[in-house]
Design a protein that fits this description.
This protein has four domains: 158 residues, GAF domain (Beta-Lactamase); 119 residues, PtsI, HPr-binding domain (Enzyme I, Chain A, domain 2); 100 residues, 3-Layer(bba) Sandwich (Glucose Oxidase, domain 1); 310 residues, TIM Barrel (Alpha-Beta Barrel), CATH 3.20.20. Helix content is 44%, strand content 15%. It has an eight-stranded mixed beta sheet. Strand 18, helix 18 and strand 19 form a beta-alpha-beta unit. Helix 5 crosses helix 9. 49% of the residues are buried. Bound molecules: phosphoenolpyruvate and magnesium ion.
Length: 767
């Protein structure tokens, strides 16, 4: 059976379209099960009918013509019950529906199984036989397995637009399509797709002997120089958008293009007799395949940068570089690419760029980090996207949910346009709150801090009235380099952050790599990265990295004295003791070097369930506590925070999460320590209300949400929030709690703030 299954799956994957795939499936299944009929009925959500889409054994003329309503026939029964139906006398069943067009009356045995993908019913697959018999268990298991495979194929066909090739009956849908990816940068954008394709194709370069090695070297050197000029130009175009620290990425590119790096290797290959293009392909492909083999997602993405550079050099060698000028981009350009690179961002004039879409990559890609800094709504990792077809298409990006729509209908456009307008109007209205305190109507103050990573974030945060930095993610500047930044480089970067906020506090987290965050130059390859070498575990094993970082932080704070140091991923007290010992050592060294710096406050992040139950012991050792609710939720619920398949289970308002948060604040206060939350929950106005009611001393969030949170805090009383907290703490379901919070805040007049009120089902019926 397994072998048959494998063969069918292989054949189906190479089918040219969905119709072809279905024809293969029914033919092979009929053959494999030695039955007389195998048919697939697909469910059309618009007409709410099952349409016969492929059959072996029934009348071919009925394909695409015959359909059943969801309450009709045995097919409708299988669909509505969402479980197999295995009977030996179909015509005797009360739900049997005779369809004369199919010529099916003589078949007695019937086995129907639902085709379901991600909880969504896509259709029903049926096998039938003339004689009366019950299909056996192995036949039923085979059909169920086949149908699960088929569900994935159908979902893919829908997503890639292949479903459009189905017969007209099913094609009553509009040609609008919806694609889901991962949120890269928040915001909504409506614009026109511009597909960025590489100007040359490295993979198609053939091997050839160099006729003159000297000439090939010269051609290559010229192309290399032109590629360097490209990168400098592209970087230059982004200079007004990005700060020098973020521009460091372009230096990384230039370093790769250095004569001593890629350049030297290509020249070596030319010297061995290859022509320039062939030598370039060899070197680049070797690097790319090396990186692509890496298990780590971040490292795999570095292959993209190298490929991009290789392609640019090749385009110059071939004289095929694209000459797109600023005028070629529409006013609302949504850049689409199979693999967006930071260099591509520089191709579009910043005033015309309104959104980004990348088939590959994740929210941790460099492009996503830069997009967030530039405030450009972005969707990453849209795996099923037929991206080449999006050129010139009208597109909508929902960067909040990581969804994009192509050719949206008027209604959908209107809804998103109003979200966009509302966001703009709201941001304008909230500007007035800049200098107002975050204080409730009954006089309770809740300082609102921000999370930063790039210096651009710091600047935007001050524009929005942040009162301090609750989390500075130091791994971000580390990710922008191609080696560990030196102590003095780090000192410079940290100084900018500390200075930007002085005299307000800046909480610098020590390097938090591992999990889904890795550095190209420090690969961590593990089977279970989220349960592995992460955060403090890495830096305690590498005291040299930790000490350099802490020394840089300390030196950067000279004269400002607003530094707080925070330790990520703490799961036991020894880690805190060891880290504090190192911090003390670094402080003594720096003081001995002549810097007059007080010992900074040191705190721990509560991100691991174990730490929740040792909060007292931890609080006794440190000056402050900050809850990393993103990781804490992930570990409490055992739900990977980046896995879209289990995204529904990642419930920020799960009663267990809320109970943990309440326990933490109570215990930390019992030890007299201040406590804050710096995960996404704090930036959610509904979450912020609950955290304030629980007694958190500060909350720290992304700069975009700060004015919204402030506006809610200023419009309610602490007593109201506490009553609401009491009520939701009696509830058993995270979904119900979130819905209750939504309703209560809407009723209190904050409907506008807790948006963008995007209906989670908006456009979901589109494919
Ligand atoms: C968290 O886990 O909540 C947190 C703030 O840290 P990060 O999102 O960087 O892992
Ligand atoms: Mg974390």
């Amino acid at each position: 059976m397994l072998e048959i299954l494998r063969r069918i799956v292989q054949e189906v994957s190479s089918a040219k379209d969905l119709g072809d795939a279905l024809r293969v499936v029914v033919a092979r299944i009929r053959e494999a099960t030695s039955t007389e009929v195998c048919s697939v009925y697909l469910y059309d959500a618009d007409s709410k009918r099952y349409v016969l889409m492929a059959t072996e054994g029934l009348n071919q003329a009925a394909v695409g013509k015959v359909s059943l309503s969801s309450s009709q026939g045995l097919v409708g029964l299988v669909g509505s019950r969402e479980e197999p139906l295995n009977i030996d006398n179909a015509p005797a069943h009360p739900r049997f529906q005779f369809l004369p067009e199919t010529g099916e009356d003589p078949f007695l045995s019937f086995l129907g199984v639902p085709i379901i993908h991600n909880k969504r019913l896509m259709g029903v697959m049926v096998i039938q036989q003339r004689d009366s018999r019950q299909f056996d268990e192995s036949e039923e298991a085979f059909l169920v397995t086949m149908s699960a495979q088929l569900a994935g194929v159908i979902a893919h066909a829908e997503a890639t637009g292949n479903i459009q090739r189905l017969p007209d009956e099913l094609n009553s849908k509009s040609i609008a399509a919806r694609f889901a990816g991962a949120p890269g940068a928040p915001g909504v954008a409506l614009g026109q797709g511009v597909v960025m394709v590489p100007a040359a194709d490295l993979a198609s370069v053939v091997d050839k002997q160099a006729e003159s090695i000297d000439e090939e070297i010269e051609r290559f050197e010229q192309a290399l120089e032109l590629a360097r000029i490209d990168i400098r130009k592209l970087g230059g175009q982004l200079r007004s958008e990005l700060r020098p620290e973020e521009m460091a990425l372009f230096d990384v590119y230039l370093n790769m293009l250095d004569d001593n790096a890629l350049g030297a290797e290509v020249k070596l290959a030319i010297n061995q007799g290859h022509w320039a293009q062939g030598a370039l392909r060899r070197v680049i492909m070797e690097y790319v395949s090396h990186f692509r083999l890496m298990e780590d997602a971040y490292l795999r993405e570095r292959a993209t940068d190298i490929m991009d550079l290789g392609t640019r050099i090749l385009a110059h060698l071939q004289g095929s570089e694209s000459e797109t000028s600023a005028d070629d981009y529409p006013d609302f350009t949504i850049l689409v690419s199979e693999e967006l690179t930071p260099a591509m961002l520089g191709e579009v004039p910043p005033n015309k760029l309104c959104g980004l879409i990348s088939v590959k990559g994740s929210s941790n890609s460099h492009v996503a980090i830069l997009a967030r800094a530039m405030g450009v709504p972005t969707v990453m990792g849209v795996i099923d996207l037929p991206f080449a077809q999006l050129q010139g298409k009208s597109l909508i990006i929902d960067g909040y949910r990581g969804v994009l729509y192509s050719n949206p209908g008027a209604e959908l456009r209107q809804q998103y346009q109003s979200v966009f307008d509302e966001e703009k109007a709201l941001a304008k209205d909230l500007e007035g709150l800049l200098h107002e305190p975050a204080e409730t109507l009954d006089g309770h103050r809740l300082p609102l801090w921000v999370n930063t990573g790039l210096i651009t974030d710091a600047v935007r945060s001050l524009d929005r009235g942040a009162e301090g930095v609750g989390l500075y993610r130091t791994e971000v500047p580390f990710m922008m380099k191609d080696r560990f930044p030196s102590e003095s480089e780090q000192q410079g970067i940290y100084r900018e952050q500390l200075q930007a906020f002085s005299p307000q506090p800046v909480t610098m987290r020590t390097l938090d790599i591992g999990g889904d965050k890795a550095l190209t130059y420090f690969p961590i390859i593990e089977a279970n990265p989220f349960l592995g070498w992460r955060g403090i575990r890495v830096t305690l094993d590498h005291p040299e990295i930790f000490l350099v970082q802490v020394r840089a932080m300390l030196k950067a704070s000279v004269g400002l004295n607003n530094l707080r140091i925070m330790l990520p991923m703490i799961s036991n007290v020894t880690e805190v003791d060891d880290a504090q010992h190192l911090i003390y050592r670094a402080w003594v060294e720096v003081v001995e070097e002549g810097y007059a710096i007080p010992m900074p406050q040191v705190g721990v992040m509560i991100e691991v369930p174990a730490a929740v139950y040792q909060i007292r012991e931890l609080a006794q050792r440190v000056d402050f506590i900050s809850v990393g609710s993103n990781d804490l939720t992930q570990y409490l619920l055992a739900v990977d925070r980046n896995n879209p398949r289990v995204a529904d289970l990642y419930q920020a308002f799960h009663p267990a999460v809320l109970a943990a948060l309440q326990h933490i604040v109570k215990e930390a206060h019992a030890e007299g320590k201040s406590v804050s939350v710096c995960g996404e929950l704090a930036g959610n106005p509904m979450g912020a209300v609950l955290l304030m009611a629980m007694g958190y001393d500060t909350i720290s969030m992304n700069a975009t949400n700060l004015p919204k949170v402030k506006s809610v805090i200023r419009g309610i009383t602490l007593t109201w929030a506490q009553d609401l907290l009491r009520e939701v703490m009696t509830m058993e379901s995270g979904v119900v709690i979130a819905a209750t919070m939504q309703i209560m805040l809407e009723k209190a007049g904050f409907g506008r703030i807790i948006g963008p009120n995007i209906d989670p089902n908006l456009g979901k019926q589109l494919h």
